[in-house]
Amino acid sequence: MQEEVEYLSGFGGHFSSEAIPGALPRNQNNPLICPLGLYAEQLSGTSFTSPRHLNQCSWFYRIKPSVTHEPFYPCIPENKRIVSEFNQQTTSATPTQLRWKPAEFSEIPTDFIDGLYTICGAGSSFLRHGYAIHMYVANKSMEGRAFCNADGDFLVVPQHGKLFITTECGKLFVQPGEIVVIPQGFRFSIDLPDGPSRGYVAEIFGTHYRLPDLGPIGANGLAAPRDFLVPKAWYEDATYPNYTVVQKFGGELFMAKQDFSPFNVVAWHGNYVPYKYDLSKFCPFNTVLFDHGDPSINTVLTAPTDKLGVALLDFVIFPPRWLVAENTFRPPYYHRNCMTEFMGLINGVYEAKQDGFLPGGASLHSCMTPHGPDTKTFEATVSRSEANEPSRIKGTLAFMFESSLIPRVCKWALESPGLDKDYYQCWIGLKSHFSHNRETVDENGTKISEAAQS
Known about the structure:
This protein is mainly beta and about 450 residues long.
């Protein structure tokens, strides 16, 4: 399948693609009669009057327009574990550090839609501000149905198993170590070419992902625009009785029947498109003398807010790289953060957690909740005799969804058998290394010096 897929290259540009030469209208978007008898249809990802540099839309030229379907009805059976409104009725607040083990694959046939479930989030899809973090566990391809998310953009991070994704713009082949972004409103279907798949999804409401500014880094580095791949036009002209389109709307799932494939777009052009990115092509930067760079230096994509420098959600990775800082504690330092950090592990061992954080698992450290390396990592790091020698982090890929909004956690995530209730124990063993004379207090409240005790 991978060899069959062709792509266009770039990020944020205006693309054009036609599966049949001449299918794209020339000189205008909406002619009286489109070439090949196709229908013109626009998909807008921003308001019509958004500034030009932010405006996103695409024109499709399709065999039948997407409006040709029966009315929407609530899905039966419904997936009650999808949330897009985060309040006291739907979720819980907790400042406790949380960690989950990898989810097990079900023996019940489950596709991407049925296997999607929300872990946490903030804000509201109806108010067009906020985010939701989901995970998915699937063992079945989406047969005879497509998914459309009316609430926001999906950033999908597969951890196990490949994904073969058909969209209205064409096909995408995505495997662990890559990501795919499917913007709000696109219809798509996911096949599993090599069996079960699981992974992570970051959904954002009311905005779109973009490349971060590079600042003093200059013109080059981090994720290069040319490494983002957009599908070429591909269409399906076939009759499908009872084909189902499932639409997520306000966190609820609705379904409508139609008699044709939604992937009947023969040609398209625009800058509102799905895309994939290979994380191995990320060009990391790091300190070369002392101290430890902030994780923001590893940002692949960001969804900004109106407040300068504050993200609704950043997608950050911790890829293989060299560490060369001198006289520096090289793993991530202990910290409390006004941002919230949700972490996942695609493969290997995360540099700050020697035990318990497994590929396919996740952790959540909310706003101002302290976190950092576990006891084993700290002790091993400070006892190394070669601490000033260059060392290479390899065989690992971790990532983080970081947000300025405080998350609320779904009850099934807090009640999950995969929740690691002993997570806090990884820090309990941290002991004092304070070398000055220590004072203790006796039962009468009198201070006793360490020398007096001995």
